[in-house]
Amino acid sequence: MTSAFDLVVRDAQVATASDTFSSDVGIKDGRIVQLGLSLPAGEREIDAAGRTVTPGGVDGHCHLDQVIPPPTRMADDFLSGTRSAACGGTTTVIPFAAQQKGESLRSAVDEYHRRASGRASVDYGFHLIVTDPTPDVVKRELPQLIAEGYTSFKIYMTYEDLRLNDRQILEVLTAARKYGAMTMIHAENSECIGWLTQNLLDEGLVAPRYHGASRPMLVEREATHRAISLAELVDVPVLIVHVSGSEAVEQIQWARHRGINILAETCPQYLFLTAEDLGIDDTYEGAKCVCSPPPRNASNQKAIWRGLVDGTFTIVSSDHAPFSFDDEQGKHPNGEKVAFPYIPNGIPGLETRLPLLYTEGVLEGRISLNRFVELTSTNPAKMYGLHPRKGTIAIGADADLVIWDRRDLTLTNGMLHHAVDYTPYEGRRLGAWPGCTISRGEVVWDGQHFTGTAGTGQFLKRGLPSITRQAARDFDPNNK
Ligand code: DUC
Ligand code: ZN
Ligand code: ZN
Questions:
Q1: Ligand 1 pocket, residue 154 CB under 6 Å
Q2: Is the CB of 291 under 6 A from ligand 1?
């Protein structure tokens, strides 16, 4: 007689965003079909006795195989990036389909589907990156693509080749409002960064640590305030991504007190790195931690931790932007020390996001296990139109699970499965790592080896997030 279950995860301590309870998890055809004690035997059994089981992580902000001007190139494509995600407990990734200026959004989406095709081992969606909001893009392409499941997009207030001016931001936010999409905003003041960068270069100050000096907290604070104001004018919820310190946190809290619907994301680099990691002298090693916004000082780091506890932050994402160090396509090309404005921005973090936060957040008692699940899985699933299929352990949800092992280990890049040649967290002590990751009922990481298969990751056509769907309904009651 065949079993009702393909797999039973037995005697789990299940943690969701709201509850922790003892249960077996019965899985059939990639879905959770039963929760309860003493379930009948499955075709396969995994003993989780005494171990915490959380929903698979949802990384709502990571960059994979993104097109950038040569010779720089991302180290991770969809093969290595999703493998690395699986081994770190993340079962859903949402990287970007980035529009080049002059290109249609459709062509960008087609290109990123080609890049992902046959290579992903966990499920994935795409955010759009809108860099060229022509009337055709805003009025025809965006609504079409939103209806096809690309229900979020990122816009930039900085980077010459990506940034939109305020008028363009208003146009794009209006489309988000009308069609119920989520807008992610990279908030840094481009003109201030350009001016500060030029001043530093004129003084011959080129080491990686001047990356931090060229993008101080003020430039993020100003842009965060402006992004909030533009969102208020259009009356649409937006997400401020990769918030790095207290002055941006204050702007978000100010907005919320005024009833403006602002969501906020932070990333491990603002919890676990500081400005010192960019270098305290002119050595080049700090290039490994060059990302934007840059890591800040210890008191800003504390403010970010407080924001995790007090509800300021809605999600924690990796902002995985994988550039190798000793690589001609990376940060230290042919051993050359490049001036800070030319160091590729971004650090790897897909695989380490969950274990770092589990260790320093949950095991160190800073946040509850349920808040950890909310920040890293449930809220990103909700915010990007994937809930309740993703982001929870419930009957009917995809069987995406992490079984946690409590063990002391020292993080080294050799343990990781990305294609980047370093981790900024080398040598950190960790108290937990996923002992098993399950993606739609299949074990993709057994605690020792990647056991997934390239091509089994499915493209996720995403729904409208409820928060922006509501805003769209308020805007046009006929818009269901
Ligand atoms: N900053 C970004 O805006 N994106 C990728 C990585 C980074 O540092
Ligand atoms: Zn960004
Ligand atoms: Zn990013």
A1: no
A2: yes
- C-beta separation of 26 from 4 below 8 A: yes
Residue nearest to atom 1 of ligand 1 (CA): 292
Q: Average pLDDT for residues 326-347, to the nearest whole number?
A: 95
Percent of the chain residues past pLDDT 70, beyond the cut: 99
Strand order of the sheet with strand 96-98?
A: 96-98, 127-129, 152-156, 182-186, 238-240, 262-266, 315-316
**Cα(156)–Cα(160) distance, rounded to whole angstroms?**
9
Residue spans per domain, the chain: 1-480
User: In what helix (H) or strand (E) does residue 383 lie, and over which residues does it extend?
Assistant: helix 379-383
Mutate which of 131, 219, 291 for ligand 1 pocket (most atoms within 8 A of beta carbon): 291
Work out the mean pLDDT of the chain and round it to a whole number. Answer: 97
Q: Are 403 and 14 in contact (CB under 8 A)?
A: no
Structure tokens at 417: 């499965």
Q: What is the DSSP letter of 140?
A: I
Interior angle at CA 77, CA 427 and CA 98, nearest 5 = 115
Sort 427 into a burial class: Cβ within 10 Å, 0-12 / 13-18 / 19+.
Answer: exposed
Can you give the three-state secondary structure of 304-348, one letter per residue? HHHHHHHCCCCEECCCECCCCCCCCCCCCHHHCCCCHHHCCCCEC
Over residues 131-182, the pLDDT tens digits come to 999 999 999 999 999 999 999 999 999 999 999 999 999 999 999 999 999 9
Phi, then psi, of 438 in degrees rounded to 5? -120, 125
**Phi, psi for residue 246 in degrees, rounded to 5:** -65, -40
Q: Which of 110, 104, 115, 114 is nearest to 142 (CA)?
A: 104
Phi first, then psi, for residue 379 (nearest 5°) are -65, -45
User: Residues near 126 by Cβ (< 8 Å), separated by ≥ 6?
Assistant: 94, 95, 96, 97, 109, 112, 150
Architecture of domain 1-480: Alpha-Beta Barrel (3.20)
Residue percentage of the chain with pLDDT more than 90: 96
Q: Express each pLDDT in 257-276 by its tens digit.
A: 999 999 999 999 999 999 99
Q: How far is the CA of 267 from the centre of ligand 3 (A)?
A: 10
